[in-house]
Specification:
- The complex is a heterodimer of chains A (306) and B (286).
- Chain A is of the alpha/beta class and 306 residues long.
- Helices cover 36% and strands 24% of the residues of chain A.
- Chain A has helices spanning 5-17, 70-77, 109-119, 137-148, 154-167, 184-196, 214-231, 242-248, 266-271, 276-283; strands at 27-38, 44-55, 59-64, 85-96, 100-103, 120-123, 202-206, 234-238, 251-256, 259-265.
- Chain A has a 6-stranded mixed β-sheet with strand order 6-7-8-3-9-10, with helices on both faces. Chain A has a 4-stranded antiparallel β-sheet with strand order 2-1-4-5, with helices on one face.
- Chain A is globular, with a radius of gyration of 20 Å.
- The chains are: A alpha/beta (306), B alpha/beta (286).
- The structure holds adenosine-5'-triphosphate (ATP) (2 copies) and magnesium ion (MG) (2 copies).
């Protein structure tokens, strides 16, 4: 990636809004009253009556308290949840481009497996830990193609793998590396590359950029925004970085204690936040260059650390 | 009170690609000092060598060259001296999904270092562990102590990792992205806790982060890394407000800031309203 700083910094909004609105009014995923419980000794009701509609080509940001159920919700969309997690109510419908509606919660076995890979790609939270430690990056990337694109030959696989690495800013010469030889951010980028490999219709990304510096982060977001214009996929982007979400998202959902407490366009959320927790979130980002505000080190109060 | 001094630290990795070998200079001649009651922030490019520095300080890797001194004396590298070093110098790892043992309960993760380092007795340890949980804003009850890492959210794991590092009562803390998965209010709470420990217990801290705003507000000095080298090092405000290096300026310019974003400036005009001042809502924090 050899773009100049200026290009990277100013491009994001033009890429996001470029070529007319990318998001179409046509839904790609509808979630209705989804309820997910961890059935442990003291059951945890992690997602409570969550409803949302995701449109084709839309970027939906998902923010919220730590432990508020974001990851659990993301797993539910894909039926990736494992016991003791159980979906106790609600529905998830995927509106396929070619084959109509799919009742995701009714899928099982082979059809569920195919659905997951070809329709929805997921970058897991803690992705930097989800590479296989004993297999090289090259083998893992190419394996995706061997399994899901059997018609590709070895040269094509190699070419496509290197192309994906370049896309996320990892030097393709590092393709033979093993996970432990890569930095945290490089591992995250490899996982993003794998999610992009099969041109999914929906990408769910759970804290995919926690280990990336802001320059690389911006370059990758720019690629994702560009690709969704080109390929029209929708993205659910989970992060605590609200300033970043505001820049890239069409709409933003805010979760707290298992509930979606606010869901609106990034503009409405920024100019007229309704829920007190949203206001609190917006108000608690220390300004980079402004005065230090409430969170100056000297200004802590013992209560705050509770 | 403990000072950790690094002088001209370098680390070179040998990379193998098929039959060919090449060298990767992950860290090149880096020098700094971690002193009591002070925080040094380490920011910079992804892959520039930050975690490698942390690993060198923790003796998880051996430097190719350079020295590490603890209070002026060469650090202990084996036996009793190494155990003493580990008592003084603790680390929060970058990846909370890999650094907690999936077979052990949260309680075990905290009780073990408390007992091992003589911070508590079998009788007082459970109470001390709960106190640690409370300090990082996690539920301090038996049910939570009995959970295992995979039963926690990402941010909850991160806080357990912090509590565990604090358990032995270290005098030097190396924290690699310790709060990256926490929402801002909890994040500020945890950073404030660390700031308070610093003042009360003279903790020396290396704070590795990609969050430039907290690097500025919670550190005394900032070091910026690019491709294995420290390219800028100075007082926190100076590095952020008047950066000398081009790369530092690039980093600062790339930090998301809705208040100067074209999208929201245009929206303000369309709505005919001024840009909102969200910081004014801080009273809502309650
Ligand atoms: N296997 C499990 N058993 C019991 N409780 C669980 C389990 N996994 C998660 N939880 C609980 O469910 C709640 C929601 O967790 P989830 O991982 O969805 O949160 P999150 O919003 O993604 O948080 P973070 O931002 O910290 O990653 C948390 O209180 C968590 O402790
Ligand atoms: N065990 C190893 N073998 C070979 N190369 C390694 C090893 N560990 C790290 N490296 C390389 O050293 C360089 C620095 O990695 P390091 O993890 O220190 O970066 P970092 O600054 O922490 O990055 P990030 O912000 O992405 O976590 C990277 O190019 C990485 O691939
Ligand atoms: Mg999560
Ligand atoms: Mg790192």
């Amino acid at each position: 990636m050899s773009k100049s700083a200026e290009q990277i910094v100013t491009d994001l909004e033009s890429v996001r809004s470029g070529f007319g609105a990318a998001a179409s009014p046509e839904p790609v995923l509808t979630v209705r009253d989804l309820d997910i419980v961890y059935e442990v000794a003291e059951p945890v009701h992690a997602v409570r009556r969550a409803s949302l509609t995701l449109h084709r080509g839309e970027i939906l940001g998902l923010a919220g308290e730590s432990g508020s159920g974001k990851t659990t919700l993301a797993y539910g969309l894909n039926q990736l949840h494992r016991p003791p997690a159980r979906i106790i109510g609600g529905s998830v419908t995927f509106h396929g481009q070619s084959d109509g509606d799919v009742d995701v919660l009714a899928l099982e076995g082979e059809s569920l497996r195919t659905f997951r890979w070809s329709r929805i790609a997921m970058v897991f939270q803690g992705a930097m830990n989800s590479l296989n430690p004993v297999i090289s990056v090259k083998a893992q990337l190419e394996d995706v193609f061997t399994t899901h694109r059997p018609q590709m030959d070895a040269a094509e696989r190699r070419h496509r793998s290197e192309e994906l690495l370049r896309l996320v800013g990892v030097d393709p010469s590092r393709i033979t590396a093993f996970a432990h030889e890569l930095s945290g951010g490089m591992r995250q980028r490899v996982m993003i590359a794998m999610a992009l490999a099969l041109d999914p219709e929906l990408m769910i990304m759970d804290e995919p950029t926690t280990a990336l510096d802001v320059v690389v982060q911006r370059e990758i977001l720019q690629e994702i925004l560009r690709l969704r214009q080109e390929l029209g996929f929708a993205v659910v982007f989970i992060t605590h970085d609200l300033p970043m979400l505001l820049e890239i998202s069409d709409r933003i959902a805010v979760m707290r204690q298992g509930e979606i407490v606010e869901l609106d366009t990034a503009e409405n959320l920024y100019f007229a936040p309704k829920h007190p927790y949203t206001r609190r979130l917006l108000g608690s980002f220390p300004s980079l260059t402004g005065s230090t505000g409430d969170f100056v080190r000297a200004g802590y109060s013992p209560e705050e650390t509770r | 009170m403990t000072t950790l001094t690094a002088t001209d630290l370098s680390k070179t990795y040998l990379l193998r690609s098929g039959l060919r070998f090449s060298r990767l200079q992950a860290v090149q001649e880096v020098s700094f000092e971690l002193s009591p009651g002070r925080t040094l922030a380490l920011v910079g490019q992804s892959g520039s060598g930050k975690s490698t520095i942390a690993k060198l300080l923790m003796q998880l890797e051996r430097p190719t060259s350079g020295t590490l001194l603890l209070d002026g004396a060469p650090i202990g590298r084996r036996g009793r001296a190494l155990a003493d070093y580990r008592h003084e110098v603790q680390m929060v790892f970058q990846d909370p999904f890999a650094s907690l043992n999936p077979y052990h309960s949260i309680g075990h993760h905290l009780l073990r270092p408390l007992l091992l380092h003589g911070r508590a007795t079998a009788r007082t340890a459970p109470g001390a562990a709960k106190e640690l949980l409370e300090r990082v804003n996690l539920p301090a009850d038996d049910a939570f102590m009995e959970r295992r890492p995979h039963e926690l959210s990402g941010g909850q794991r991160q806080r357990v990792a912090i509590a565990r590092a604090l358990a032995p009562g270290p005098s030097v803390l190396v924290a690699d992205e310790p709060v990256s998965m926490l929402d801002v209010s909890v994040r500020l709470g945890v950073l404030n806790l660390l700031a308070r420990l610093q003042q009360e217990e003279d903790l020396a801290m290396l704070y590795i982060t990609h969050d430039l705003a907290t690097a500025r507000h919670f550190s005394d000095e900032i070091m910026v890394m690019l491709r294995g080298r420290v390219i800028e090092h100075g007082p926190a405000d100076e590095v952020i407000l008047s950066p000398r290096e081009e790369f530092t300026r690039r980093l600062l310019a790339a930090a998301p800031e809705p208040a100067t974003n074209q999208r929201f400036l245009a929206e303000a005009q369309r709505r005919g309203v001024p840009m909102p001042d969200h910081l004014a809502h801080q009273e809502d924090l309650g």
